[in-house]
Amino acid sequence: MKRALFMFLLVSILFIAPQAGFAQTPFDDIQSHQASADIEAVYEKGIMRGTSVNKFSPDEFVDRAQLAVCLVKTFNLNYDDLKFIKAPVPSDLYDDVEDNIWYSEASMVMGYHKIFNITNRKFRPHEAVTRIEAASAIADSFAAKKLSVISTMMWPNYLDTTNLTPKQQSDISFVFNTSIMRYTGNEFKPEERITRAELATILNQTLKTLAVAMPAQETGSGSSPDSSNPVMNPPDINTAAFKEQGDLAFIWQGLLYAFDGKTGEVKQLTGSGRAVQPAWSHDGQWLAYIDVTDPEADTGPLWLVRRDGSQAHQVQGLPGLAGRQGFFWSPTANVLALTMQDGVWLVSADGEPSRLVQSEGTFHLAWSPDGKYLAYNGTLPSDQPEDRSDALYTIAVDGGQPVQRLVAPQAGIQVTGWWSDGKGLLYWVDPLHSASLAADGMGLWSLRQGDTEPKFLSSGLAHQGWLSMSPQGRLLIVKGEWRIVWTRKSLAIIDPESGSVQDLNNPEGSVAIDPSFSPDGSRIAFVAAKELGGDVWGFEKPEELNAWVATRTLWIRNSDGSGAHPLPSAGAGVYQPVWSKDGDHILYVRDNALWIIGADGGQPEKVLGPFSEEEDLFGFYGYSSYQGITAWYQP
């Protein structure tokens, strides 16, 4: 319904009054109102005025023109760096806004920043504003100012928002988590009209949020091109599905989050940049990650942050940038070991870094199970680069000299781990330090501490996640050379001490990949996918790749090789199954999202996703990993 002309003139005077501070409100209709303090706050800041000399009219509804003016004042919105050949006028954008009315300028600012939903050149200035419209306008105003807000992220449990668009749900999550718009109960009532008192409360909470907001930065290739929310479209998490399953760190549109499976709290830990490779400390109190500054190499400064978001700091004093698989937490203390260009360094969570040993060509290391030793490789000096040899070393982390365990003549060494009892080491051998040869498979070797002759175990691809150790010390491995994943890949269980190998039969017509031992070592989860043969080295059409991915299914078998069976309800396109600590559930990736399913079957539930990072189904000749954007802590 249209308002009378005298009301237009009155509102015009009230909204364009000077924005100087005011000593106190003159209103006699707010004294007993629950929003009186918020009304006084926004009045004193010149953001809202009354409807008459001594009336605020708290229960009157707000229209789009009023909200536009209030948002311009609250956020100091303007045209920023936009330049015009001629000064803009409302008729450039709208057919229903006069050129010189009190909300003309605000309506144009809204239009240029795309803050209001405008269709058919209609601003609809006198249409009442709903809660969802207010939520979206505020979220879009933060985005227009390029402001980021770090807050505790929880997906609101409103039952009446499920039919809204994903962006509207994201906007509601933003205003909920920043406490700008929080309503008790399980209803947001998105179509309910906003009153003037309610708007005063919303704007006062917005001012408090603005006080702690920070300039947003580009999030690199991990950001979504259509992100418009100041918290980059908050992640959609099924808290109930992950309840009591531990804690999950994950990257969402370049930002790092921590999800507490006990409380359901989701904490945003970074406000800008692009984080990768989150890693939990042994006690679950710290996260390490890389803030990528070199997108091509995926390297950057090493950062540490507590799980609650406090004490975030870049590690100072390191001689270079950290790489994706170059740092590891001690299994017994809050200490990181990492490889740098000049050797192995140690970094305590709250202290300065120190170099443990100086070496060259060190790219791989591993902690002993008791946290007292590190194993690493080092390249020996040579006048002929093609004749370089690596040595395998161990060193006590509390000091002492490195001990050379063996030399791999004219070959590189990639340390991969220790025996579960700490009495031996596992490592890959890369002939001639050749990246091409290594990509098609290397030999895995085992060396008992004190011995000089290692045992050859098997050949395979040294993909992170393709080795799994049981509590009993047995090693589960994907055997098979050639870099292509869809041929000549099978599972085997190896005794690292004796070198004995137990081959496991593949499901008929399939390769077996992505293996994982259950916590008690009695069962194995793995992915079976169609065997395509050695003639297929790529796919000419995306649908051909998608068809092969659709054959990736979740399987379970006993560790003696018996009882192999699929879990068809897990769906198609399965990657990276990992067991829960109690052995009752399996977490896996499907459709670019994290899912959880009972180890004995049942209906899966989506925990998180789809991830905002673009899904790469091909990866490296069929190998794709999500370990750089997720980390699961199970206390």
UniProtKB/TrEMBL annotation:
Residues 1-23 form the signal peptide. Residues 22-85, 90-152, 155-217 form the SLH domain. Keywords: Repeat, Signal. InterPro entries: 6-blade_b-propeller_TolB-like, SLH_dom, WD40. Coiled coil: none annotated. Gene3D superfamilies: TolB, C-terminal domain (2.120.10.30). Belongs to the TolB family. This is SLH domain-containing protein.
